[in-house]
Amino acid sequence: MNPIYRKFQASVTQQLFALNQALTSCRVAPSIQHPVWCTASVNERHYRSMPTHGIGRWRHLLPRNAPKKKKEKHQMKGIFSATATSYGTLNVKVSGHDMTVVERYSQYIHNLCIRLGINVAEHYALPTKSTEVMLMQEQGTKMYVDAVLKTHERVVQLSTLNATLCPIFMDVLLKNQPEGVELSVKEHTEADFQARFKTRPELEGLISQIYQ
Amino acid sequence: MAAPCGRMASRPLFRFLSRFSGICVGHTGIRHFSRASVSRTTAKSETEGERGGSPWTLMAAVCLQRLPVISADYNPMEQRFKDMLHQIELEKSVLSDHELRLLEEAERMSRKQAGDYDSDKEDDVDQEILLAQDMEDTWEQKLKSFQPAPRVRADVDKDLSSPERCLADSLVLLTEQQVGGEKMWLLPQTQWQEGETLRQTAERALASLPAAGFKVTFLGNAPCGVYKYKLPKAIRTESCVGTKVFFFKAILTDSPPPKPEKALFLWLKKNELEKYLKPAYMLKVGNFILDL
């Protein structure tokens, strides 16, 4: 308490001293001005002894974070195994030819899980597969390209699913399934996770060379 | 009460994977069969001791549903909104490759038919033999020759025993069974026997239906509803106070070949169920049948 009071007194006396100096040096217009405004301009630096020193500091209040690594780690989320009352990590795969319908349905599933309190581990897309539909020509034996069909796949990964909630959840999903969309529910395995990554043949070649 | 539930929970989960366009579900679960059978025998020895205590007879029933095949029709408000959205999207959209090609070729045709046409001055060298307009004409022809199946068939809709009726709604199977000297319409059920899980009882209930032949997928191992009733006081004994019926949900994956006569089954929508089921039963059953 006391040192602060002393500092305040000191600062006040200093301000008055500065004010006197300012009044004597410059011919101030006879209009009444607040003494503090007269001395303090916009760019004045706060001295270290002043109580307002460091008044604008904010960076020390932020939490210290190490810079994030962009690389996805080996197993992003652990695979749960089935227990007596709940299923393990499940993959709900939605696939179809119409991308808007497939995406909307997968979003619907995700929102339904949030509503029902089911933990959604991940929601990702698998690469699109293109299928060429070829027809025989009417006169001749050559096949020609009739259409290109693209199959889009979206996966909603649920970490656990309660056995009592399962029939209700499946019933709602099936009754709201749109036309032209396939639904399949499978258990999530490590192989499924690894299938999402591209193989790096050069890296594998180098590794095999090291170990030979 | 604890006995059948405990056994049910330790039952092995089966692996299903079925694929149909539009209607498809698959279940997989991995359990080692040897482990499950061990736990089943231990549970069985427990229940033999406490079996004498429970005065309720247990039964398992199946709520077999045929899922909707086509999407329901839009009501007028939805139709208007849908048209409006479609128009907005059309007006905001950009021309596709095919449409651009149509425009280019139309322009080229008009230039060809003009008086001063010099083919050497054409910028684009590659001119398709098959014009985009011709392709469109062939597609139109193919579309005209395609006959889609009718969405609503009035005569099939009226036949209550056919699983093909009302393609836009989900239907529930009802059978006529004898319960305590009275014949009534209810969901197929049988009595639980010792040594099996309730889900197996439910499967047996379906299999025991006369001339069923349904291909069915059960949606889960846990029941979705319970109905219990006490017997009238005259028949009530110490060991048999009443019955508890556990319901399991299942969906029809393959419809059986159509039977020539005998309406043994009824396929009903939820609002039609009230006419056939007893009110107390309907109250409990209506809780878990979703009318989506």
Can you put this structure into words, describing what you see?
The complex is a heterodimer of chains A (212) and B (292). Chain A has 212 residues and is an alpha+beta fold. Chain A has six helices and six strands. Chain A is extended and about 105 Å long. In chain B, 18% of the residues are buried. In chain B, a hairpin with an 8-residue loop joins strand 1 and strand 2 (26-27). By secondary structure, chain B is α+β, with helices and mostly antiparallel strands. The chains are: A alpha+beta (212), B alpha+beta (292). Chain A binds chain B through residues 82, 84-85, 87, 163-164, 166-168, 170-172, 174-187, and chain B through 9-10, 13, 17, 19-31, 65, 67-68, 70-71, 170, 219-222, 224, 248-249, 251, 288, 290, 292.
Question: Keywords for this structure?
Answer:
heterodimer, A: 212 residues, alpha+beta, four-stranded antiparallel β-sheet, two-stranded antiparallel ribbon, 35% helix, B: eight-stranded mixed β-sheet, 10 strands
Short description:
Chain A is 35% helix and 24% strand.
Overall shape of chain A: it is extended
| Share of residues in helices of chain B | 25-40%
Count of individual beta strands of chain B: 10
Q: Sheet with the most strands of chain A?
A: 4 strands, antiparallel
Radius of gyration of chain A: 35 Å
Structural class of chain B: alpha+beta
Instruction: Count the DSSP helices of chain A.
Output: 6
N- and C-termini, Cα separation of chain A: 75 Å
- Name the chain pair with the biggest interface and residue counts per chain: A-B, 26 and 34 residues
Q: Give me the strand/helix succession of chain A.
A: HHEEHEEEHEHH
Low-confidence stretches of chain B: 1-51
Strand residue percentage of chain B: 15-25%
Helix content of chain A: 25-40%
Radius of gyration of chain B: 30 Å
Q: How much strand of chain A?
A: 15-25%
